[in-house]
Amino acid sequence: MERTYLMVKPDGVQRGLIGEIVSRFERKGLKLVGAKLMNVSLERAEKHYAEHKGKDFYDRLLDFITAGPVFAMVWEGDQAVGLCRALIGKTNALEAAPGTIRSDFAIHTNFNLIHGSDSHDNAEREIGIFFTEEELVSYDKAIQVWI
Ligand code: RTP
Ligand code: MG
């Protein structure tokens, strides 16, 4: 079982796409174990996007992710990291496969609606930035045996 960190970015919240986005992971059969609407402080944003420090889009990225509330989530399931990245689609909406979130709803790379952890280690790191372990809920999902 693997956990991943997903976050509807400020553009997705402003466009009223939280429900649409959440429903895609629910329908896939993954298990939601944590969720909250929150503002991202600059300190948290810098930790989260540390790997991009120094790149030309870094400042713009920090401005964007701190500009309004995000919907932070932790999802659990077999290969959750890779499966969620597949449902999200490539960074650039032009390259995202049809049917993915970014293909269906995004136009620009700067406003690509959702973040998903790109590796198991980054997932655990990012979950630690945005959630305390007490905020995550452990439970059995009756239907899971059929998926
Ligand atoms: P994310 O981390 O947000 O899930 O997106 P990602 O893995 O698909 O893309 P990543 O390479 O991690 O980049 C993080 C975010 O930075 C913005 N970006 N802009 N060339 C550019 O202008 C550029 N490249 C990346 C995007 O908003 C991307 O989601
Ligand atoms: Mg990334």
UniProtKB/TrEMBL annotation:
Name of the protein: Nucleoside diphosphate kinase
SMART domains for this protein: NDK
Gene Ontology CC: cytoplasm
Record-linked Pfam families: NDK
Subunit details: Homotetramer.
Function of the molecule: Major role in the synthesis of nucleoside triphosphates other than ATP. The ATP gamma phosphate is transferred to the NDP beta phosphate via a ping-pong mechanism, using a phosphorylated active-site intermediate. (Microbial infection) Catalyzes the phosphorylation of dZDP to dZTP, when the bacterium is infected by a phage that produces the substrate for the synthesis of dZTP (2- amino-2'-deoxyadenosine 5'-triphosphate), which is then used by the phage as a DNA polymerase substrate.
Catalytic activity entry: dZDP + ATP = dZTP + ADP; a 2'-deoxyribonucleoside 5'-diphosphate + ATP = a 2'-deoxyribonucleoside 5'-triphosphate + ADP; a ribonucleoside 5'-diphosphate + ATP = a ribonucleoside 5'-triphosphate + ADP
Compartment(s) where it occurs, according to its Swiss-Prot or TrEMBL record: Cytoplasm
GO terms for MF: ATP binding; metal ion binding; nucleoside diphosphate kinase activity
Similarity comment: family membership: Belongs to the NDK family.
Record PANTHER family: NUCLEOSIDE DIPHOSPHATE KINASE
NCBIfam families linked: PRK00668.1 (NF001908)
GO BP terms in the entry: CTP biosynthetic process; GTP biosynthetic process; UTP biosynthetic process
Binding site for ATP: K9, F57, R85, T91, R102, N112
UniProt entry keywords in alphabetical sequence: ATP-binding, Cytoplasm, Kinase, Magnesium, Metal-binding, Nucleotide metabolism, Nucleotide-binding, Phosphoprotein, Transferase
Names of the cofactor(s): Mg(2+)
